[in-house]
Amino acid sequence: MNNTDNRFICIPITESTSEAFLSAILEASQQADIIELRLDYLSVADRSTVLSKLPALAADPACKDLLLTFRPRQQGGHQDLSLEDRQTFWRLLPPEVIAASRFVDFEFDLVESWDAHSPVPWEKVICSWHNFEETANDLLAQYDRMAATPAAIVKIATMANRITDCLKTFELIEHAKDKKPVIALAMSFAGVATRILSLASGSFLTFGSLRKGAESAAGQVTASDLTNLYRVTQLNRESEIFGIIGFPVAHSRSPIMHNAVFSSYGRNAAYLPFEVQDAGEFIRDFVRPETKKFAWPLRGLSVTIPHKLAVIPYLDYVDSTAKTIGAVNTIVVENGKLSGFNTDIVGAMKPLEELVELSGVRVAVLGAGGSARAICHGLNQRGAETTIFARDLIKAAPLAEEFTTKLERLDNFSGDFDVVINCTPIGMRHHSEGQSPLTAKSLLKTKLVYDLIYTPNETALLLNAKTAGCQTLGGMSMLIGQAVEQMRLWLGLETTFEVMRKALESRES
Ligand code: NAP
Q: 175 pLDDT exceeds 60?
């Protein structure tokens, strides 16, 4: 078996009843090359029903290769199983079930304890080892010990506590090149890069869940996203890598927008979520050409909370707008140099300018945080007359001073404004959905209300604005606008708005 010839996506089945388990196998067969049957998720009775049906199921041409796993709780499984329990389980497995399975997963301790008279042929055995605490530095020695057993394939899954742990997993895959095939991955969201890039590195397979909520381990991406969003089977060592750094980043919609553009332009590139705690460490180990240990060409990054300011000292150049507002949301890596930009202002102002000429217009900005800062800068540049409304005047005073705007308490909103821009999270999903910072009555004199919130699409504030007869603008256009500008900076691509909009819409539906 050669490591690099295989590009398998494996879906673990984690249902807890035999009926759901069997139907999930067929559903997974439509998306995956290998289906892992997590028999430890089933009761004795359900397991026996599933096993009795396996020979017929495996004979169905619609069913993909099966991998049997019976994991003890202390190694990530769902049942308390001693070594003896597992030995007995595998010894008593009917020969027709073994014949129906392409692979079986034996934990390393089971492999070490196994005698020569196994009913399971070694060419089917994946020898696995998990570390749920950390990704230690001794993975290569661990691989060598496991590769010395008669098992056909080695699997090592470890917990990524920080993004740099992914580098140890990639090093392990490199170490196994031209040796026994390896399945290597780093668990948790910090390890997601290994799940997306491991096939291109040479891992025998990568795991993807059947759907959200059906993951068998932390950080598992859905098989559908591996195939359709990240296009993992098409990536290779020349693929250009882009991504978003932040903490947390799991909620980010940027991968949806940027990967849709790569796919539509047929670009050999991928955009990944990088959960980064220390921006300096990430830039040193993943980005800066002189020091990086990450093998791929990393061409560009989006930067989100809490790193927009923190990245600045690590850049070779920062453009004047980003300098003025003290926040970089985009890094371009070109000719070995790192340049920082801020596309939030263009992203926020462009859709607004398409609806209203801002010079001399009276604008109320609600909130005085990061996005209010970008908005105030954009409004100042365009000659608007801005007033900031904040709940905490002391906290908001430096922003008002910097942009020489008026400052009022939010609960004193007078309503005498042409444009109102909401830069608070009031009304946001999972925060205060359904609430509005302003009533419809207070918006009767307003012409246009712009809410930066993009989930939900139509906030309570925008509904109030419609009731008051105002024109409305939602935050989705800003979200897409700043990403469009990033794509222009990274690759010079100009017409990407519609591709991104459609990708976001199809994801919502
Ligand atoms: P931020 O830096 O945390 O600022 C939030 C501001 O809102 C602060 O001034 C905060 O006041 C104020 N605030 C929070 N809760 C409030 C409440 N219950 N009543 C009154 N004021 C309140 O956040 P941000 O990054 O500016 O983001 C603000 C909103 O814009 C978020 O909902 C985000 O989703 C949205 N946004 C959208 C886009 C886009 O692309 N469409 C981009 C960026 C942001 P204190 O300082 O007193 O806490």
A: yes
- CATH class of domain segment(s) 245-342+493-508: alpha beta
CATH of domain 8-224: 3.20.20.70
395 lines ligand 1 (CB under 6 A): yes
C-alpha 187/C-alpha 6 separation (Å) is: 21
User: Does residue 64 carry a catalytic annotation?
Assistant: no
pTM: 0.92
Question: Could you identify the residue written with the tokens 């009022």?
Answer: 408
Mean pLDDT of the chain: 95
Alpha-carbon dihedral 442, 444, 445, 446, rounded to 10 degrees: 80
Q: What is the 3-state secondary structure (H, E, C) of 32-73?
A: CCEEEEEHHHCCHHHHHHHHHHHHHHHHCCCCCEEEEECCEH
Distance 371 CA to ligand 1 centre (A): 7
Give the pLDDT confidence score for residue 385 in this predicted structure.
97
Residue of the CA atom closest to atom 4 of ligand 1: 369
Span(s) in the chain for CATH 3.40.50.720? 346-474
| C-alpha 243 to ligand 1 mean position (Å) | 24
Q: Is 368 in the pocket of ligand 1 (CB under 6 A)?
A: yes
Catalytic: which of 155, 308, 323, 337?
A: 308
Decide: 102 in ligand 1 pocket, CB within 6 A: no
Question: Regarding the domain delimited by 346-474, which CATH topology (the fold level of the hierarchy) does it fall under?
Answer: Rossmann fold (3.40.50)
Radius of gyration of the chain (CA): 27
